[in-house]
């Protein structure tokens, strides 16, 4: 009788092990998805001029912020900032 109960426990442990491995794979996949963008950003900054990257990010943020405004001056400023961001991105991708 004791041998049959051991088999049941071993089967249960094997199922738990497989479930734990699936959970670990999911967790590692999620972590990898979250870390890849930061690795890409590190490569972008280390392979290029960090000042240029910051200027590009600032121009992009300014353009996005100003596009929401209703005034014509803000929209013109947003267009100029978007052009500057595009120029920076073009420069970063060419080098």
- Name the poorly predicted regions: none
Nearest-angstrom radius of gyration? 26 Å
What is the H-and-E element order? HHH
Beta content: under 5%
How many separate structural domains? 2
Give the % helix.
over 70%
| Estimated structural class | mainly alpha
Average pLDDT works out at 77
The total count of strands amounts to 0
DSSP helix count?
Answer: 3
What is the distance, rounded to the nearest whole angstrom, between the alpha carbons of the first and last residues? 73 Å
Largest sheet: none
Specify the overall morphology: elongated
Q: Could you walk me through the main structural features you see in this protein, from its secondary elements to its overall organization?
A:
The chain is mainly α and 95 residues long. It has two domains: 1-39; 48-95. Helices cover 92% and strands 0% of the residues. It contains three helices and no strands. It has helices at 2-47, 50-67, 72-94. It is elongated and about 75 Å long. The termini are far apart. The model has no long low-confidence stretch (mean pLDDT 77).
């Amino acid at each position: 009788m004791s041998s049959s109960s051991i088999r049941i426990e071993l089967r249960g442990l094997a199922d738990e092990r497989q479930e734990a491995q699936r959970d670990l794979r999911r967790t590692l996949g999620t972590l990898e998805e979250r870390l890849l963008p930061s690795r890409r950003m590190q490569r972008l900054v280390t392979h290029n001029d960090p000042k240029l990257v910051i200027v590009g990010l600032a121009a992009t943020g300014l353009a996005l912020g100003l596009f929401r405004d209703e005034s014509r001056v803000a929209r013109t400023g947003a267009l100029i900032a978007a052009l500057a961001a595009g120029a920076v991105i073009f420069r970063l991708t060419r080098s």
